[in-house]
Amino acid sequence: MSSAPHVPGVEVRGEWRDGYEQVLTTESLELIARLHREFEPRRQERLRARQERLRDLAAGGTLGFLPETAHIRADDSWRVADPAPGLVDRRVEMTGPTDRKMTINALNSGARCWLADQEDANSPLWENVVNGPLNLMDSIDGTLQFTSPEGKEYRVRDDVQLPTIIVRPRGWHLPEKHITVDGEQTSGSLVDFALYLASCGRKQVDRGQGPYFYLPKMESHLEARLWNDVFVLAQEHLGIPRGTIRATCLIETYPAAFEMEEILFELREHSAGLNAGRWDYMFSVIKTFRTRGGDFTLPDRNSVTMTVPFMRAYTELLVRTCHKRGAHAIGGMSAFIPSKDPAKNEFAFNKITEDKTREANDGFDGSWVAHPGMVATAMDVFDKVLGDKPNQLDKKREDVRVAAEQLLDVRSTPGEVTEAGLRANVSVGIQYLESWLRGQGAAGINGLMEDAATAEISRSQVWQWLHNDVQLSNGETVTRELVERLTDEEMQAIEQARGEAFASGRWDDARALFLETAVADEYQDFLTLPAYERMP
Ligand SMILES: CC(=O)SCCNC(=O)CCNC(=O)[C@H](O)C(C)(C)COP(=O)(O)OP(=O)(O)OC[C@H]1O[C@@H](n2cnc3c(N)ncnc32)[C@H](O)[C@@H]1OP(=O)(O)O
Ligand SMILES: O=CC(=O)O
Ligand SMILES: [Mg+2]
Fold this sequence. Notes:
Its EC number is 2.3.3.9. Residues 164-409 form the Malate synthase TIM barrel domain. By secondary structure, the chain is an alpha/beta fold. The protein contains 18 helices and 15 strands.
C-alpha cells in the first residue's frame, strides 16, 4: 500500500487508497503548497470583498458598469489570445461528472468539447476530488476502462473524434479540508486546478492541446486577475510555456454580468471566452437582492425562461462582448434530459432544439448539453447555423445595446409564485441534497437535470419568498409554518416514491440542511458550505 509523499508543510488528511499516488504526487502537492502560500491571503481578501458588496446592496446600493474600468471598455485595441488547438470549434460541449463510467460516456459522445466537472455536477467527496483527475489522466493515457456491477464493459472508442477536455474546478468560496498547508485548509479551486494541471498538463501539451479550464462563480474582474496570476505562477513552476493554459469564464453571477469585458481583459493571454451559466446566474440574481422585496422577487423557477427580459439582456450582452474581443461565446444548459416516456421525451427534445436554435441564431459559438443523447440534436442545430465555419466570431452583434437597467429589470419577468412552485422547490432541493451528501453531484429529478446551481435556486427562492412575505397565487402568504408543513408532505411523497431504497438514504440530513438554508433567518451564501461540513 502506497502513502502520501512527504512535502514539508503539506498534510493529506483524506483516506489514502491505492492509485492515489498517481495524482497526489510530490509535484502536485508542492504546487498546491506554493499556490496556497502565495494566493490564500488574496483569496480571502476577494471573499471579504464579496461580503462588503452584498452588505452595500442590502443597504440599498445597486449594480452597474464600473467607472474605474471605463478605459478598458472604451479601448477598442485589445483582443484575447487566438483560440488554442482543440478550442476553435466548440459547437457542442458535453458536461458532466468525472467518474469512470461517465468519463468514458462523455468521451464517446461525439461532442467537440467535454466539460469535466469538479463543480456544479460534482459533490466534493474526497474520493471524487482525487478520482476525477485520476480518470482524466487515464483517459489521456488511453488506459481508462470500466466494468459496471452488471458486467457491462466500457472503453473509450478509437473511431470517434474525442472531445477536447476542459476541467471545471470548484469556485473560490469552497475549501478543501482533506489537504492542509501549514495547518490551514486549502482552496478547493486551487486543489482541483493543481491536481489536474500537475498530472495532465504536460500530457495535454504533448498531444497538441493544453490544460484547459472553465472558471465558475466569479464575482469580479479582480477574481479573474487572481486566476490569471495563478496561471502565470503555475506555468512557470511546472515549466509549461506561458499562455498554454486557457480558461473560459462562466458569467454566472449578477455582479460579473457588469464586468464581462474586464474579466476577458484580465485573462486575455489565457482566455478562451465566456459562458452564459444561466442557472447560477438566476441563483445569484435572487441571492444578490434577496432582501429587497418586489422589484427583485422572481416567480416560480420554471417561469424564468431564457427569453424573459433580464435573461435576454444578459445573453445578448455576453455574445456582443465576446465577439468584440475575439473570444468564444458559449451557451448554457437546458435542463431537459431524455425520458423513457415517449411524450415527455419528445417534449424534452423540442425544448433542447428551441433553446439551442435561439443560442445559435443569437451568435453563440457553441453550447452545452447535459446528456450524450442530446449531442446529435444540438450538433444539428449548430451545423445548420455555422455551416462550414468553426465558429461565428465574425458575427459582431453590434446591433446589441444593453444598459444596466435592462440587466436589472427583474420586475418585468412574467409569472406567478404558486404553491406548486414552492412544493417543487422543497422537494427538488431535498432530493438533490440527499444525492449530494452521498457523493453524487448531479441527478435527474422529474425529467430535469438538477445540480448544485439549480438546487441553489430552489432553496434561495424559498428563502426569498419567506423573508419577503410573498403571497402565493392562491392568496396564502409564505410563512415558516407553511414551508415546514409542505416539507413534511413532500418528504412523505418522496418516501412513498422511493420505496425500500428510502431507508438507506441520508434523508434526515438532507431535510435539516434544506431547512437550514431555505428557512433560517441567516442566509447561507452557498448551500454547499454547510453541506460540506456534513461530509466526512
Ligand atoms: C448548471 C450547470 O452547471 S449544468 C452543468 C453541470 N451539470 C451537469 O453536467 C449534469 C450532467 N448530466 C448528468 O449528470 C446526467 O445526465 C443526469 C445525472 C442528469 C442523468 O443521468 P442518468 O440518470 O444516468 O441518465 P440516463 O439513465 O438517461 O443515462 C443514460 C446513459 O447516459 C449516461 N450519461 C447521462 N448523462 C451523462 C453525462 N452528462 N456524461 C456522461 N454520461 C452521461 C449515463 O451514465 C448512462 O450511461 P449507461 O447507459 O452506460 O449506464
Ligand atoms: O454552470 C452553469 C450554470 O448554469 O450554473
Ligand atoms: Mg454554475
